[in-house]
């Protein structure tokens, strides 16, 4: 076979295209190198603007705490937020008030009910987040709402001495269990030792 001769004009065009491809390849290699190396300091770093390099890391949100571990104003603020959620959202699930499903308009005075509803609210906040996936709210209904409301509104539950008829509002706190004998005697002994220490000082 005889060699194929390419016209001079076509040859120059091919060489130009090859040079252009080599230049593009070199530029892409430079870009990859710069992306894999440490980022250059941002000119906005000194201003601490969000989304720019040099900004101090955001602190993690505080860990949720059970409401009964809170005191004073912190407790009151959390109870106010919980009350808003119960009134605006949770009561939409309210079954009719009967002896089988009592309720109390002053549920905030029942510590065990406050604890249950606060836990339910924390679980709600977690399961409505996108990270919980499309089934998040189903899981909340199945595993949290049903159990919590069945406990809070049980016929012999914490609200059983309160309103059992919507036409007759009622509220009564039932006495809970007393501290154990061991913790009572320990507290008494510690108080006695503190009194002796004060007298000898």
Keywords:
201 residues; mainly alpha; 50% helix; elongated
If you had to describe this structure to a student in words, what would you say it looks like?
The protein has 201 residues and is an all-alpha fold. The chain has a domain of 76 residues. 50% of the residues lie in helices and 0% in strands. Helix 2 crosses helix 3 and helix 3 packs antiparallel against helix 4. The chain is elongated and about 115 Å long. The N and C termini lie far apart (118 Å).
**Taking all residues together, what is the mean pLDDT?**
81
Helical coverage, percent range: 40-55%
Largest sheet: none
Low-confidence stretches: none
Overall form: elongated
Radius of gyration: 35 Å
Beta-strand level of the residues, as a percent range? under 5%
SSE arrangement, N to C: HHHHH
- Label the structural class: mainly alpha
- Strand segment tally: 0
Distance between the termini: 118 Å
> Can you count the helices?
5
Topology (SSEs and partners):
Blueprint: H1 8-36, H2 72-88, H3 111-127, H4 136-152, H5 181-200
Helix pairs in contact: 2-3, 3-4
Q: How would you summarize what this structure contains?
A:
The protein is mostly helical and 201 residues long. Helix content is 50%, strand content 0%. Helix 2 packs across helix 3 and helix 3 packs antiparallel against helix 4.
